[in-house]
Amino acid sequence: MSNLEQEPAEIDCCAGQSPSEIQILEPREVPLGGLRAMTVFRTLPQKQRSLIGAWCFLDHYGPDDVELTGGMNVARHPHTGLQTVSWLFSGNINHLDSAGFKATVRPGEVNLMTAGRGISHSEILTEGTSILHGAQLWTALPDSVRNMQPTFENYRPEPLRADGWSLAVFLGSHSVGTLSSTSPVKTHTELSGAELRLEPGVEIEITVPSHHEHGVLLDSGTVEVNGQPLKPRDLGFVRSGCTTLKIKAGNEPVLALIIGGEPLNEDILMWWNFVGRSHDEVMEFRAQWQAEIGAEPGDYSEERFGPFPPDTPAALPAPALPTVTLRPRVNPS
Ligand code: MN
Questions:
Q1: CA of 181 to the centre of ligand 1 (A)
Q2: I need a surface site. Which of 3, 31, 39, 219 has the fewest CB within 10 A?
Q3: What would the pLDDT profile of 20-53 be if each residue is shown by its tens digit?
Q4: CA of 58 to the centre of ligand 1 (A)
Q5: 326 and 279 in contact (C-beta within 8 Å)?
């Protein structure tokens, strides 16, 4: 694993940190699927980095004119071993899952779905949505709880605000000077997530636990993170060992997401929508999903991904079996 140090030395990265100490993770464009496919910009996972804390997946999208792109119409599909975190800047998405939760995802509210041992859900934009803009992230559940029962939580944080900035902390805790905010949403490792807005020229200094890693995803504007510029859609990775994140806006207003957390220190295996620990386990998740939706034969005494209302559009079948043995993802040190 990348970092087995239990108590890394505290270093103020912001004082005299060389720019090379922040890793710029550039996005790749991925069509979301369907006839008129919306494009998402994926910065996690990628070759250079699999995880930031337990965050294992980051898709950023929009602002999309849904008349042109079709927006988001993701039919029922499965997940295991992870939490999905949805955060919107504009538009609304209807969420429906096999644990019985039905919710409308709205800007400024976090919707966190814990897949645990298995869940399936659909994500479809609402009829009134004209512009869709936001992010979907996943966190990997640690081994100790990854087979828990699925659940769902919604939370609307009251943003911290001061001169020229606002910070909406939707997961974990953040403090800026004497102001602080803590989300009540349950996580299973130490994690943080927040939306940051800065007016032009404003700088914010966020106090962070030194054992956490962080990522700053820039949506719009120009910004320097600990002195290094980011382009829109880039994810700037900040290693553990920092006690502050210094984020400074250029000449335009800034909208960004900040994610963080303690290193997971577990080797996880991600394939399609599943997080597991071994090739055989993930292929077993695939086989059960295919059996439950009637795409391939299989007989299971207990449903893992159901039930789902019968009148919903057809479920997404899993991709073909991989031709190679899947290996766990390990972060380069
Ligand atoms: Mn999903």
A1: 28
A2: 31
A3: 479 999 999 998 765 556 889 999 999 999 999 9
A4: 12
A5: yes
